[in-house]
Write the structure tokens for this entry.
Amino acid sequence: MQAKEIKNRLNSLIKEASAVDPSLAKRLDEINRWVKDVKPGSLTAKKFVLFFLQQIIKDALVWLDIQALTSAEEQQQYYDRMTPTEHYWYSYLFPKWLNETDPKFFIWKQKLMAGEFNQADTSILQSIATDIVHREGTFWQCYIADFSMATDIIISNRQKKPLCIQLTSLSDEFSPDKSDNWEKALQRWGIERGLFLSYNPRINQFLHQIVNVSLYNSDNLRTGIYLKFNL
């Protein structure tokens, strides 16, 4: 989806959402005002901004589809066709984000537009996601979960219980503040359990270890526990 098409799509979604879900319309309007003065050529050059816009358009389309269903039974059937992590996003975290104040949204929008996010760990997350799927688990990744909810990836395993995970390669002397902020962010969004996983990229098979620990805790970590784990 090209920059001009994205802008047109945002405007049409705002109109549609206004009649269905004012909270969604408000968020989309906020995003639209953020990008409306950026010329299509300049917007095309900001690939991470484009990625976010594509994600929010997809989220809006799915959410409007759900809202168009007239009964709880129909909505449940729609959710049942999703993976457990996708279900968790659309039935809980995304509507929560629409309806509550996001204190980080204004800040990370500015940083995203300024090109201050380079997502250097993208290849690591892709490798983790690929291994999770290979082991018949599921995953969900998006900018809102990452930047606002301190969650790099949401995964589920055999028990189909989604788990929010933050990964960091910081040394121990730097990670305590980050892990404390992570726990507060999860609690602020009503995320009832989480895994803060510190890893050393110089260790052999560290990706395999990350996936092992993540899948195990998806099935076994108890509600109310925010586990900080060092590989």
Q: What stands out?
A: The chain has a mean pLDDT of 92. The domain at 122-230 is CATH 3.40.1350 (Trna Endonuclease; Chain: A, domain 1). The CA atoms of residues 165 and 195 lie 5 Å apart.
